[in-house]
Amino acid sequence: MSRSLVPPAVEVAGLVKRYGSRVAVDGASFTAAPGAVTAVLGLNGAGKTSTIECCEGLRRPDGGSVRVLGRDPMTDGAWLRPRVGVMLQDGGLPQAARAGDLLDLAAAMYADPLDLPGLVSTLDLGGRLRTPVRRLSGGERQRLALAVALVGRPDVAFLDEPTAGLDPQARLAVWDLIGGLRAGGVAVVLTTHLLDEAERLADHVVLMAAGRVVAAGTPRELTGGSDHTLTFEAPPGLDLGRLAPLLSAGIAATEVRPGHYVVANRTPEAHLLPADVAATTAWCAQLGIMPEGLVLGRRSLEDVFLEIAARQAGATEVIGA
Ligand SMILES: Nc1ncnc2c1ncn2[C@@H]1O[C@H](COP(=O)(O)OP(=O)(O)OP(=O)(O)O)[C@@H](O)[C@H]1O
Question: Which residues form the ABC transporter domain (predicted)?
Fold first, then answer.
């Protein structure tokens, strides 16, 4: 079956979540497929955790709808619990319990739990099973929370920043584990601030800003595949209006943050040309400016993220006509 014919494991439609007068999620919509990793990205406060918590049935939406495996998490919690694995951002584990007891307890709640010794070894928790949660390091707690979320062989796994604070070796182990879940048909929905992680792991990326989904697609779709991008540092506040007429149609110049400039295509039909690179450096020369750290590279998810975040924040942008 093609991806479009497989019913989504998670369906968020027009979700609204408010805390008092603060709108945390403002009409967000996206889907997550089985056997795929969906990464929800966004700046601090973009509404990622609120969205995921509505999917987990931990928060009641104020508008829109959420379906997980076709069910409403608020009313079908009992049906969903054995089928959904949840790793909360703060771990959410009882501080006094020993790591091993927690894992045994979690495993005992499921009909067909994962092989515990295997999971413990993958997440390198072997030496810490007799240690109470409060004495575990941040990274160990993180790995334990992941083990608890996955031990029941869930069909859907919600992982809020699963690799935050992990050392590089532990991060690779978690990436492998997530890759294994995907291969086993699990719908993995994760949040992360690590864009290289999203680029490497995610089949589908959902980019949130101010409670809304501002871009979604495969990493390749979002980065425009092999499109080039030109970045450089220069004094902040340069008059980009004088660069616009020199650029080809659909090529945008943006000051993504003060003093950090990006020249790249703004539409899929446009492509950065050698003439655009020449025009940009000539414009710098006209201004008597040396563009520091001038790099012509392939556009990364981080570039896309910064460009969209800058646009949302009202950064200066001009587009060649
Ligand atoms: N319990 C709460 N009470 C009041 N406001 C909240 C609460 N939880 C979140 N918010 C606010 O809602 C907005 C969205 O927060 P949320 O935690 O969903 O964002 P996030 O994208 O997960 O952020 P981060 O990357 O920092 O974890 C923020 O402005 C936050 O301050």
Answer: 10-235
